[in-house]
């Protein structure tokens, strides 16, 4: 069933959006700003961040748009982002973990971790944990995790999460999104009744910069010419993020997955409680967070 999209006023609401310098995140930040929210965008590049901030302010007519710098592939940078946000803003009503990468070659982060897993899963996992108390102190609050339909094809390789063997772009991407989903379901259960909700989504196939850095300028031009005809616009791609962030209908929904505005079941693996525990524990270890007492 396609969900209705009646947005509530976002006046007085503070929203943090990662990956808002481009594509779906940029359109999401604009949608939130248009609805009157204070929007804090996260960017890894200062010039790009400031340009996106100015564009969103102009297009929305809302001056309450701020930019914080962070390279989400670095855990120190994620920690710094959280520290700066907590010092600057008393509340956090909506956290949208949107930034993501799709990389044909295996890269390592400054922390020595495989880049796709680090940016797509560990960064939002860590950021959410660091901001969780502020979300709980701002209820009603919402966490929105931008996932992907790619997770349906994934199997967690717990012996080699970093894909040292047999790396390929799709395997790395799909595994990172399944990891995000597994940990999201566990956290959503923990949050039940707290006033903070957490939901995941697939925006569908959207024409953005995703994957473009994998190829040179000529191939990029050709790819853009083809993909622009096949993919949805970022504005359309942002609709599910906006629905989960500010619709009345989604206010009480928790621990669900929406595919282009339709609530759907995810892969069987994603509901495996033992697997959720294993990926959660390993993620806690990899981001150096203490395990909770049982
Ligand atoms: N496009 C699709 O068809 C599709 C389908 C399913 C799911 N998704 C998901 O949708 C989300 C948004 O993707 P998109 O399609 O809008 O792609 P995009 O246009 O490439 O945007 C990705 C955003 O993430 C940021 N980012 C990447 N690595 C970062 C890092 N290390 N530190 C900080 N920011 C970083 C990028 O910053 P820069 O501007 O500096 O590069 C950019 O703002 C991703 O999670 C993606 O997996 C997309």
Fold and architecture overview:
- An 8-stranded mixed β-sheet has the order 3-2-1-4-5-6-7-8, sandwiched between helices.
- Helix 1 runs parallel beside helix 2.
- The protein starts with 13 loop residues before the first strand and ends in an 8-residue tail after the last helix.
- Strand 1, helix 1 and strand 2 form a beta-alpha-beta unit.
- With 294 residues, it is of the alpha/beta class.
- The model has no long low-confidence stretch (mean pLDDT 94).
- The longest helix has 23 residues.
- It contains 9 helices and 8 strands.
- NADP nicotinamide-adenine-dinucleotide phosphate binds next to helix 1.
Write the layout of secondary structure elements.
Blueprint: E1 14-18, H1 23-34, E2 38-43, H2 46-60, E3 65-69, H3 75-88, E4 94-97, H4 115-136, E5 141-146, H5 169-191, E6 196-202, H6 217-230, H7 234-237, H8 239-246, E7 257-259, E8 262-264, H9 273-286
Helix pairs in contact: 1-2, 3-4, 4-5, 5-9
Bound molecules: NADP nicotinamide-adenine-dinucleotide phosphate (NAP).
Quickly describe the structure.
With 294 residues, the chain is α/β, with parallel strands linked by helices. The chain has helices at 23-34, 46-60, 75-88, 115-136, 169-191, 217-230, 234-237, 239-246, 273-286, and strands at 14-18, 38-43, 65-69, 94-97, 141-146, 196-202, 257-259, 262-264.
The portion of residues forming beta strands comes to: 5-15%
In one word, what is the shape? globular
Distance separating the two termini:
39 Å
> H/E element string?
EHEHEHEHEHEHHHEEH
- What name does CATH use for the topology? Rossmann fold
**Total DSSP helices:** 9
**Major sheet attributes:** 8 strands, mixed
**Helix/strand-derived class?**
alpha/beta
Poorly predicted regions: none
Bound molecules: NADP nicotinamide-adenine-dinucleotide phosphate
Bin the helical content.
40-55%
Q: Taking strands numbered 1, 2, ... along the chain, how are they ordered across the largest sheet? A: 3-2-1-4-5-6-7-8
Radius of gyration: 18 Å
What is the level-2 CATH architecture name? 3-Layer(aba) Sandwich
Give me the CATH superfamily: NAD(P)-binding Rossmann-like Domain
Which CATH first-tier class would you pick?
Alpha Beta
How many strands?
8
Domains counted in the coordinates: how many? 1
Please tell me the overall pLDDT: 94
């Amino acid at each position: 069933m396609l969900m209705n999209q009646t947005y509530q006023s976002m006046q007085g609401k503070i929203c943090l959006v990662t990956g808002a310098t481009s594509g779906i995140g940029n359109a999401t930040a604009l949608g939130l700003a248009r609805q009157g929210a204070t929007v804090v965008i996260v960017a890894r590049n200062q010039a790009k961040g400031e340009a996106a901030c100015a564009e969103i302010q102009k297009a929305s007519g809302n001056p309450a748009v701020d930019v914080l710098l962070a390279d989400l592939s670095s855990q120190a940078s994620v920690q710094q982002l959280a520290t700066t946000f907590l010092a600057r803003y008393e509340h956090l009503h909506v956290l949208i973990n949107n930034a993501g990468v799709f990389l044909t070659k295996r890269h390592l982060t400054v922390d020595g971790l495989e880049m796709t897993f680090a940016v797509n899963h560990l960064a939002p996992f860590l950021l959410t944990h660091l901001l969780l108390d502020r979300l709980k102190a701002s209820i009603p609050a919402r966490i929105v995790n931008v996932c992907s339909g790619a997770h349906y094809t994934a199997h967690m390789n717990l012996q080699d999460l970093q894909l040292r063997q047999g790396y390929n772009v799709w395997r790395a991407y799909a595994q990172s999104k399944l990891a995000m989903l597994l940990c999201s379901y566990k956290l959503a259960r923990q949050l039940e009744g707290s006033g903070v909700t957490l939901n995941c989504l697939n925006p569908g196939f959207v024409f953005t910069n995703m994957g473009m850095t994998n190829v040179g300028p000529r191939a990029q031009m050709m790819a853009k010419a083809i993909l622009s005809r096949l993919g949805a616009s970022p504005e359309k791609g942002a609709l599910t993020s906006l629905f989960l962030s500010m619709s009345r209908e989604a206010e009480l929904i928790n621990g669900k997955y929406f595919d282009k505005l339709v609530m759907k079941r995810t892969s069987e693996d994603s509901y495996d409680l033992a697997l959720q525990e294993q990926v959660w524990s390993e993620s806690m270890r990899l981001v150096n967070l203490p395990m909770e007492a049982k």
